[in-house]
Design a protein that fits this description.
CATH class of the largest domain: Alpha Beta
Structural class: alpha+beta
CATH topology of the largest domain: D-amino Acid Aminotransferase, Chain A, domain 2
Strand content: 25-35%
Helix content: 10-25%
CATH architecture of the largest domain: Alpha-Beta Barrel
């Protein structure tokens, strides 16, 4: 079956789609992305994803070429073109092409790319506490889904080298910030805790739902609390993944009740 993508203003076969070599998303990582859950052919939580994208775009001074309704429409068209009813969608937004140099071109002509993909059932993972890199909780970028994921990539490489599939990132103050592919949930006694945004946590869509439902509580999490936790899980819009072991110590697979 032919894979279709949405590129800028239309659907086209993925093998025919092309992005200019001077696109700043490629040359400088100058852009943002959102990953959405797809259920019954409908992209989930589009307004929340749009709001987060718009917040990031405002920080980067990057114009959005659509509103929330328009974003939902092109996401749904991409899913339908691929015959996909359940799975995931990724929307990538870059500043578009520009000359050499750091300052953005004027006017800016953003690039929009949407891809659709199938998902597999979530499985538990073994995790480590990353030691080669720390999360900079003071940076405004730590709360955005930018195209620069090098800190997460380095942490995942460390995890792989240490026989694990996931890494937990501490911030520069030594407190928990999150995992490489989502927010971290830590069971401490009867409570499920998740780091506050001020400690470098990403404002995750599922995280917000868990907090609103009272299934998790926002609180700073020290490395000592992390290591004493009986259960941990990683949260993103596609899945909740239990952490089966942390630095080689087995944990009880569990999720917040009702999630």
């Amino acid at each position: 079956m032919t894979e279709f993508v949405w590129l800028n203003d239309r659907l086209q076969p993925a093998e025919q789609a092309s992005i200019p070599v001077k696109d700043r998303g490629f040359t400088l990582g100058d852009g943002l992305f959102e990953t959405l859950n797809l259920q019954g052919g409908a992209p989930q939580d589009v307004p929340a994803h749009f709001d987060r994208l718009a917040t990031g775009a405002a920080v980067l001074r990057l114009p959005l070429p659509f509103n929330a309704a328009g974003m939902g429409e092109i996401l749904a068209k991409t899913a339908a073109a691929n015959g996909l009813t359940d799975g995931g969608l990724r929307l990538t937004l870059t500043r578009g092409s520009g000359p050499r140099g750091l300052l953005p071109p004027r006017p800016t002509n953003p690039t929009v790319l949407i891809t659709a993909f199938a998902t597999a059932p979530a499985q538990g993972v073994r995790a480590i506490i990353a030691r080669i890199i720390a999360h900079d909780e003071a940076s405004p970028l730590c709360r955005l889904k930018t195209l620069n994921y090098l800190p997460n990539i380095l942490a995942r490489l460390e995890a792989q080298e240490r026989g694990a599939e996931e890494a937990i990132l501490l911030n520069r103050a030594g407190r928990v910030a999150g995992a490489t592919i989502g927010n971290l949930l830590v069971r401490a006694g009867a409570l499920w805790l998740t780091p506050p945004l001020s400690d470098g946590a990403l404002p995750g869509i599922r995280r917000a739902k868990l907090l609103a439902a009272g299934l998790a509580k926002e609180a700073p999490i020290s490395e000592d609390t992390l290591q004493k936790a009986t259960s941990l899980c990683v949260s993103n819009v596609l899945a909740l993944r239990p952490i089966l072991a942390l630095d080689g110590t087995a944990l009880e697979p569990a999720f917040p009740s009702g999630s």
